[in-house]
Amino acid sequence: MAQRSDVVLNYKSVVNHAMQAGAMCYNLMVHNGWLEKQPEAIDRNALAGADRLPALSLIACT
């Protein structure tokens, strides 16, 4: 089944416009101090360190 080229081009235009609007919003928030830095991933190495919660042991009920 062939895709309609006009629909594909319109979809590409809409996605491009949405990405530009998102970039403008991000720059506006940074400029006004509403957003200081990009969100960062969780430091998984620190979570796996010594301050880790002890594992729960499963006890079989008899």
Automatic annotation (TrEMBL):
Organism of provenance: Paenibacillus soyae
InterPro entries: DUF3231
Protein name: DUF3231 family protein
Domain of life, per lineage: Bacteria
